[in-house]
Write the structure tokens for this entry.
Amino acid sequence: MTEPAPPNTSLWRNRDYRTFLVIQTLSALGDSFSFVAIPLLVLHSTGSVVQMGLVTGLTGVASIVTGLFAGVIADRFDRRRLLMLADMARCLLYALIPLVWLHATPMWLIYTVVPLTGGFAMLFQVTYVTVVPAIVEPGQIIKANAHLYGSYAVATVGGPTLAGLVAAAFGPVAAIGIDAATFAVSAAGLLLVKLRPSPRPIGDKGAERERGAERGGVRGEFLAGFRFLWAHPVLRPLTVLLSLFIFLTHGMTDVLIFRIKEDLGHGDGTVGYVLSGGTIGTFLASFLVTRVRKRLGFGTSWIGAVALAGIAVACLGLTGSVPVIGALSATMLLATGVAGICSMSLRQEVTPGHLLGRVTAAFWTTHYSLGPLGAAAVTAAAAGFGVAEVCLAVGAGVVCVALSGTLTGIVRAESPEASSRTAASGTPESATETA
């Protein structure tokens, strides 16, 4: 299932991949624009931080609800058309805001449009993960993910800056209009991308299991993703350990901001510099991950990256120097970037194409479900016991998560080729039968 690509094949000679990289960057840029423009519009219209939070909360709920069945949709329908649908829906929904704002400023429109766009964004994200293996050769998946991760980082850094400049010069409504235009261009670009068809289950048992899942409706198909995760000797412990990792680290950005502003007495500008500087780690991750995994294999790369993230978090509580905190933040993002790209690539390599949407949705739903609880617990602990103590505790916990990986099947997934042999030896096939 994951034979290495021909040695002389270059990703940059793949027209479909080049086009997809450009349109994915545009789509991420649109998301970044809305990340800034929507809160600014709510604030300008109402002056209420409570209403800003309400819009954000509703969008988060819509994303989670959509994530429950996005994988089923991605596995049932044409994936390229789903990506186009998600982009066009966001284009039209966001375009409604500047059109209506020419005549009136109804807040109900924001409360309706923004959560809907959050749902379509989740559908796009799940489907996007499933199409990468259908565009590039199996042996090029991790390199492609590294490029896409880097382009996302560029959009995440540049998008809010551009959105802020446009909003300052022409108002947030203009920034939302540009946001809508980026999604239109992205949808049009997808017409130029061709995807290889996903193979269906091979053999009577695999096909019968798949038909059984479909007869079980959305619930049965959704559970097929969980069953695959649970049956796989690497994805099962990876899902559990990542859930613990997310629980421990989901609130660290808030803790970092609190550390800079309250403990060290610096202003908002310093916070912005530190968070922006931290993105250097994201860029480095996209450049280094392919070499690191090729040299060290999946198990060592993932375990080492998570351990490095834990050490960086622990050290955040031991220093009062803002430049050092910035360097540690970059190190943490470098480590989590390497671990995240390795994790997503492995999932794409070992999961049968017809199940990839459901497995992705199940994976995200499981390990992000503890995030809000962890953020609340970590920030409450920081307020009660102090940031330094919490950073040490969280860092130690993350290192323990990494070391726990040495006791599981994660450490035995030493390379993409090893993962391929594991898949070929029957584990994913048996997981498909279970599903």
Summary: The chain is about 80% helix and 0% strand. Residues 1-8, 202-215, 415-435 have pLDDT under 50 and may be disordered. The radius of gyration is 22 Å.
